[in-house]
Each structure stands twice: as C-alpha cells, then as structure tokens.
C-alpha cells in the first residue's frame, strides 16, 4: 500500500468506530443506564417529554434515510488503487498521470440506472461505473457507464428521458424495467435514442458481474499538457477478466433467487482476496482532426470506433477493500464530472455541459447542504483551504478573522496559484457564434452507428437483441407506440423490424435501413478474453461418492482459480464410499443452477432419493438450457442420463482421461451456443 493510500486511511481513522466492548452513550457521550424503557410518570403512566435519550434515539431513527438518488439509486462500491504504468506527461499535466509507479487511492461505485434502491441487480439496464481518484491535486471523478453512448444529445432532455424510463406515475409500475409504454413512446419520438437502444437490447445490458464489465467515460473531455496543448479524449476501463454477460432467462431467474447477485459477487471476491482489476486508457484525437470523422466527436450518442481511434492504456485499477459501512460510504459518496484536476478539461458536449450543473445541484439536496465534501468518503487526501464558511452540517472549525478574498489582514491568504504552480486554468478554447437554441447539423444522423453496432454483433448476439426487442416492445400496451417503434428501427435493420412487427402485432414497416456496411469487432462480446478465474462451479453431490475422483477434480478447479460450492440435499457433511467427509455449503433448495457458471454432477445417495434426483435433474436442465458447461463424474452418469441434457458441446464425462483439463477449458468458454435448445 502506498503513502497516499495510508494517508487516506489515516485521515478516516477518527471517523471509523468499532463499538465492540464499549459502554452505551448518547451522541453527547453521556453513559446510559437503561436502554429498554422510556421515562414514564409511574410504571403504567404517560411517557415524559424530558426523556432526552428517547428523543435523541427516535429523532435519529426518523432521519436515518436521505433521499435516494433519482437515477443510479441501486449501487454498490469498493475501495482500491490506481497504478500508473505508462506516463501520460506528453498529453496531460495531471499529476497522478506523470510518473510510472504512482499509486492513487480510489473509490468505485457500480449501479443500475432505472431501479429504486431496493430493486434487483440483474435487470436489463445501463450500469453506472463511477470512480473517485483521491489525487494529491484534489479529487478527480470519472463518472461513466458500462455502455459508451447515451440516450440523448442535450442535457435539457435528461429530465424527459428519466421521467419516461422510470415507473409510470399513474400506477408506479414497472420497477427497474424499460419494458413499458412511456419509455418506448419516448424512444419513438426522440430518435436520437436509436444507438443507445441497440446497446440496451444487447447482452451488454445484463452483465455477468461488476468485475466483468467494461466502463466508458461516455463524454468527450480534453487532456491538456504543460505547454497548454490539448487533445480530445474519451476514457475507457477494461476488465482484465474480459466483459461477459448473462442471458435473459438466467438474469430473470437470478433476480428471483438472489436480487443482490452483483454486489454479493463483488463483496465475496474482494473478501477472498481475488484479483479485481481493470485497465484504464483513453482514445485521443488531435484538435486539428476534430471534423475529419463521419460523426460529431462531441455527440454523446456516438462512439469513436476503436479501429479508427485506438485505445491507449496507461494504468491499472485494482479493487482490494470492501466498504466498512454501506450508508456512510456507498450512499454518501458524491460524484461529480466537474471534479477535475489540472490537465483534464471539458468540451462543448451539450450533455456534459448540463451534467456539470446537475450533479452538484443534486448533492446539495441529497446530502443536506454545501458541506457534503466534508463527509469522510468525499474528502480529498490533499490539504484544502478556502473562504467558504458555515452551512448545514459544517464540521471544519476555521480559525482566524478573515473569510474573504482579497484581504490584507491575512496577507491575502488563502492565495491563488498559477498554472505553473498547479493552479487550475481552463483551456483557452476560442468560442464564437450567435446565442441560439438549436442543435448542430452534425448531430442529426441517428441510425448509422446503430447499424454499425448491429453489423458488429455475432449471430447469437443478434438473436438476443431480436428477442429483447420482442419482449420489451411486446410489453407496450399502445398499438400506436408499437407501430412507431417498428417504423423507427427499420432504419437500423429491415429484417429486425419486420420480425418485430410480426411479434408485436403491427403492420409491416415500409422504410429502408441505412446504407452502412462497416462493422467494429471490438463491440462484440464474442471477442472478449475468456478465463476460468473466479467463475463459480456448483458440485451436486450425495452420500457414497467417489472421494478420489471428486478430490482430484476439485483440486484442479481450485488450482485454476475456479470457485467451488458443494451443493447437497442438506447442510453439514457427506461421506464418500471410504467414509471420508466433505462439507456441504449450499443446498439444492437454497441455491439454483442460474447462480453458477458451470455444474459438476457427482450424484450419490440421499435421505429422500426421489426428491434429491428430481432437484438435480432440474439443475442439469437449467444449466443445459443456459448453454453452460456441465461435467459429469462416473457416479453422476445415471442422473445425467435422465435429464434433458444431451452429450455434445460443453458436456464432459469423467471417463475422459483429460477430464479436469478439458473441464477447466469449457468453464473458461462459459457458453456453448451450438446446443439445440433455442426455441423462437
């Protein structure tokens, strides 16, 4: 752990309290003699107002909840560090990007967008991916998503979009879902959404894990170097485990069996010391090349294809510490895209410009006034000095008589700093034009990149997108809206629109798709790295199994970093044929095949054999239908033969002399799409 990380933890120490073994007191430090009974006038008499402990306790409880975030309410976070491995000094003045080896403490919050704080985590939605860098020049917040584009181009449309995607106001339904009339009515009447909707209907909207999810800064920012030379940039963070997704049926099953699936996955992997890492990089465009592309680089509904603008990776993000208190840290953390450091600046992206106002305004409401920066999770690690005073929840005690600039009584301190001294100086962009409410003509192409995305998908990914459209638009009650959506997406792909029209019962579209044949392989999840590390295998097992066979297989899995859960009919221990015990940590009732990346079918004897076999067959069928790899031990052959699963791709049997090695490879592959289980 580096010095700055130690400083951050040391700074937080006065705020981190372990109450174990202490005496109960009020918030003023007064020891309490009775915490079971309120003060009364007689044993059965009225409660007295003078009971200060009762009033303090109830008042605090009444005020424990703060307004949840309007969007990104359902979130989870972790601590870590960013390590620079390539200097970016040539491009930016930012201090934490100068010297390779520099480590900066960070705090990351992942979230869904549409759902409330209590909604499930595996819903079809955009995922927030926000990082707070505690640099020596102040906090830098990189506030992004797991999708590189957004629904709208101008921030003035943001309240409209959020109103449309949230539960409908007349009945407060549906929760955490975009499959309803108002969202699709908004989409059809605001066609700048086309590109983002293609991403939302894709597997990108149902990630396997926060640890296996791409991150994007979405907006166009600037790097500015020591000489004042600027480049346009877009931030990217890539998971070292590759970007992987769930499939729709699996995501729905997980939402029922474990609505905390994503946060549990992150928490457990950090607790177990597993590596959670991402590479951070940027795409860069010279200012002279601003207008050389067939899209506007300031348009947040457009991406910069990696084949045209490669990503330059320069550092590693590592998550290594879970939060101590979800409310104090995860809920009170305040991100703001306007929190930048010298060398990182803004552009005229009209969506970004609105967010620079909106985020600060939101924190003032949620966190009770302007002093939310004094909350420990939001405080910078570097010293900070200014003339701001008072306000709700003020914690700093400022000495001295001066609280204004300029002054002579304190020798005009705190004083300003020049660019060379580390002061923030806005990039001197030349701006001219008439004051007008309008949108650039270069923002008007809404379908070319949506078509590019479609062209880039594998056949399986296209199938999933078609099914997502059928499900989502099929939930829309208004026939007019369904027709408008079909007529809109014929611009992206005619065959897709025709199939959708048939599925949702409206007229066939008459338009034509845009003439775009290009593709970008980087956009397909099929091209992501695949590793077995931390993927989870459920071992379905009963009494009388072959201990040596199971031990050798489990040992091979653990050696490759695969996570193993022993699943039986009951908790406790089971004995193999030689009397050796194995400990069961999940039961066939408390878990589900959807919660595992793979199954190892051992089988065996159980108290209620019929129920045991029936549960195992259900597990096998589910895993098979979700295209997952299945390993079958010699003692599991009988139960496997009674399932719907068929020998073939991703099915491995213990009779194979290379079973363990081949099973690990199959686990890494994750899905076997050529199984004949799909029904249109």
Question: How would you describe this structure to a colleague?
Answer:
Helix 12 runs antiparallel to helix 13 and helix 14 crosses helix 17. Strand 17, helix 16 and strand 18 form a beta-alpha-beta unit. This protein has 17 helices and 18 strands. Strands 1, 2, 3, 4, 5, 6, 7, 8, 9 and 10 form a ten-stranded antiparallel β-sheet that branches. A six-stranded parallel β-sheet has the order 15-12-11-16-17-18, with helices on both faces. A two-stranded antiparallel sheet has the order 13-14. The two termini are 53 Å apart. The chain folds into four domains: 60 residues, Cytochrome C Oxidase, Chain J, CATH 4.10.91.20; 278 residues, Catalase HpII,  Chain A, domain 1; 80 residues, Up-down Bundle (Hemocyanin, N-terminal domain), CATH 1.20.1370.20; 140 residues, Class I glutamine amidotransferase (GATase) domain (Rossmann fold), CATH 3.40.50.880. Helix content is 27%, strand content 16%. The chain has 680 residues and is an alpha/beta fold.
